[in-house]
Amino acid sequence: YNWQATKASLKERFAFLFNSELLSDVRFVLGKGRGAAAAGGPQRIPAHRFVLAAGSAVFDAMFNGGMATTSAEIELPDV
Asked: What is the pLDDT of residues 16-53, one digit of tens each?
């Protein structure tokens, strides 16, 4: 599958990747807390560390700071 061939510009390619699990390197895990089992288990949302770090000093510190996480999952149990 050559997805690049269907995207004429770099802007279109970035938009495709932003909205795709392709090349994602981290996942938000939502709903591991109360009621998650009743709702069918936790939901996983793919994301890209570089996008999160570029947009937020908190995520930048989380991924690149002295106590940076190497986990591919970020748990948000109450969401």
From this structure: 998 899 999 999 999 876 655 556 788 999 999 999 99
Please give the model's pTM, rounded to 2 decimal places. 0.75
How many CA within 13 A on the CB side of residue 22?
12
What is the C-alpha to C-alpha distance for residues 16 and 68, in angstroms, rounded to an integer?
28
Please report, for the domain that includes residue 28, its CATH number.
3.30.710.10
Burial of 75 (0-12, 13-18, 19+ CB in 10 A): middle
| Radius of gyration of the chain from its Cα atoms, rounded to whole angstroms | 15
Residue 8 lies in a domain: no
Q: By the 8 A CB rule, do 18 and 7 touch?
A: no
